[in-house]
Design a protein that fits this description.
Distance between the termini: 42 Å
Protein name: glutaminase
Strand order of the largest sheet: 3-2-9-8-7
CATH superfamily of the largest domain: DD-peptidase/beta-lactamase superfamily
Number of domains: 3
Low-confidence stretches: 1-11, 16-35, 538-543
Shape: elongated
Mean pLDDT: 83
Strand content: 5-15%
Structural class: alpha+beta
Helix content: 40-55%
Organism: Salmo trutta
Pfam families: EF-hand_14, Glutaminase
Family: Belongs to the glutaminase family.
GO molecular function: glutaminase activity
Oligomer: single chain
Length: about 550
């Protein structure tokens, strides 16, 4: 079927190839919101809403593939299929399309998400991405043949906030293996399933100060922590009864139905070149570190399988955001992990997650993170967002050269470091709140809209949660300016009164005198009255 150009563009938006949306139960629909949304996108009763809607949606950080918007996208898709040509929608149809997702859309368009000005934030992330892309050095891991096949030029960054705002730059759709980035995830699943006390009977909580694949135990003959190979192998033995498919199910839920796969070739390479891990396994068996009746070879096999799980930067960022959001996947709203499991995981990632660079990373970046020899860095900004960086070249410790640089530059620009003083560290940006400049700009624009009698602009301000009673430097509100600009007859309340009528009705003689004197000094021409009557008719359509 040949589609008109606009319809073809909308079809691309409505049919993302990488995602199968999950329908959610619709929340109750406030009667006023979809009408206001419709009027803010159009001046007429029939409008080409979808394209404007998609543009506005992208500016908030939401994707059309977001599972929470599945009902809305399905309705729009159906409207397109029912339309023979260009998609035109009236208010009733628009309300039907957005109704099931009205609460989420209200938050989005009123800038109530954790990152209010997402476009500006994404622009800063892009600048960091391109500046980091120029970093050279490091070597692609070659001790696992499948990893050695990746180009050193690959570089991608994806982020997902706790509200489900998404942004990606670079090679973010290329699958790669989690490798050691799976360690905090399997630990979180183990704590969620088995409990903290039981898990830590077999593994410690302290940084080892040694290489991640060292044959070493703590003074209690336990692996130092779950982020080194010995600890991860023991955790794998605890999870083995859940099976590979059980762990995959958890990871898919954490990724919110984004891509999670498996590389059998990498798994076979891991087994063939895993002499060091087999040595660790036998050492653990000798020291009786495994649970009773655990099969050491089966545990190692399971560990190799978990390391060979594939993600992309996009799906990895949603996993990280699930950790940032207390175990709740931001784009599905499903509670995947317990709050206790997430807290413990982030604590260990902060102290032990970056191999024997963990102390320096905690000092300079101050955020929980985990790296892997595939070149991945999974970074969590608690209560804000998750980030997945991927670039295969590694430094001498085994961390991604570009990934480390990006994380350092991120906290240099934004006050995300755990110990940044949010009140007094003025040199850094805080994307979590709107700046004073934004507020001042909104007030100025609001005043000019009132002065010119631009009812459509005023509706957009109200929809965007701008305080319509905000005052300027001279304590004037938009209503003051509305009066002073001779738009007094536009200020009609729903009972048909003007401000002058109300002043007379309630006996406000002083106000009556001011308004009457103003009308005497500035008489209105018939042409002006006709124009104001036209605007009044427009306003009545809204109210």
């Amino acid at each position: 079927m040949c589609l008109p150009p606009l319809q073809s563009r909308l079809q691309d938006c409505l049919n993302p190839s990488h995602h199968n949306p999950i329908p959610l139960s619709p929340p109750p629909l406030p009667s006023h919101f979809s009408r206001s949304n419709f009027v803010s996108l159009s001046h007429s009763h029939f409008v080409n809403v979808p394209l404007s809607f998609f543009q506005a949606l992208r500016s908030t950080g939401l994707l059309t593939s977001d599972p929470r918007l599945s009902d809305c996208m399905r309705q729009l898709r159906q409207s397109m299929q029912d339309s023979a040509g260009t998609v035109m929608m009236d208010q009733t149809l628009f309300r039907k399309c957005v109704g099931a997702n009205i609460l989420l859309l209200t938050q989005a368009f009123r800038r109530k998400f954790i990152i209010p000005d997402f476009e500006a934030f994404a622009s800063n992330i892009n600048q960091l991405y391109y500046s980091t892309q120029r970093q050279v050095g490091g070597h692609v891991a070659d001790y696992i043949p499948q990893l050695a096949k990746f180009s050193p030029d690959l570089w991608g960054v994806s982020l997902c906030t706790v509200d489900g705002q998404r942004h990606s730059a670079g090679d973010t759709k290329v699958p790669f293996c989690l490798q050691s980035c799976v360690k905090p995830l399997e630990y979180a699943i183990a704590v969620h399933e088995i409990g903290t006390e039981h898990v830590h009977r077999y593994v410690g909580k302290e940084p080892s100060g040694l290489k991640f694949n060292q044959l070493s135990l703590d003074e209690e003959d336990k692996p130092h922590n779950p982020m080194v190979n010995a600890g991860a192998i023991v955790i794998s033995s605890l999870l083995k009864v859940r099976g590979f498919l059980g762990v995959m199910e958890y990871l898919k839920k954490m990724a919110g139905t984004e891509y999670v796969g498996f590389s059998n070739a990498t798994f076979q390479s891991e087994k063939e070149t895993g002499d060091r891990n087999f040595a660790i396994g036998y050492y653990l068996k000798e020291k009786k570190c495994f649970p009773k009746n655990a099969d050491m070879i089966a545990a190692l096999d399971f560990y190799f399988q978990l390391c060979s799980i594939e993600v992309t930067c996009e799906s990895g960022s949603v996993m990280a955001a699930t950790l940032a959001n207390g175990g709740i996947c931001p784009i599905t709203g499903e509670q995947v992990l317990s709050a206790e499991a997430v807290r413990n995981t982030l604590s260990l990632m902060h102290s032990c997650g970056m191999y024997d660079f963990s102390g320096q990373f905690a000092f300079h970046v101050g955020l929980p993170a985990k790296s892997g020899v595939s070149g991945a860095v999974l970074l969590v900004v608690p209560n804000v967002m998750g980030i997945m960086c991927w670039s295969p070249p590694l430094d001498r410790v085994g961390n991604s050269v570009r990934g480390i640089h990006f994380c350092q530059e991120l906290v240099s620009l934004f006050n995300f470091h755990n110990y940044d003083n949010l009140r007094h560290f003025a040199r850094k940006l805080d994307p979590r709140r709107q700046s004073l400049d934004d507020r001042n700009k909104s007030v100025v624009n609001l005043m000019f809209a009132a002065y010119s009698g631009d009812v459509s602009a005023l509706r957009r301000f109200a929809l965007s949660a701008v305080d319509m009673e905000e005052k300027d430097y001279d304590s004037r509100t938009a209503l003051h300016v509305f009066f002073l600009a001779a738009h007094i007859f536009l200020c009609v309340i729903r009972w048909g009164n003007t401000p002058l009528d109300d002043a007379r009705q309630f006996g406000w003689d002083g106000v009556v005198s001011v308004l009457t004197e103003y009308q005497r000094l500035y008489p209105r021409s018939s042409e002006s009255e006709t124009e104001d009557q036209r605007k009044l008719d427009t306003l009545k359509v809204v109210v």
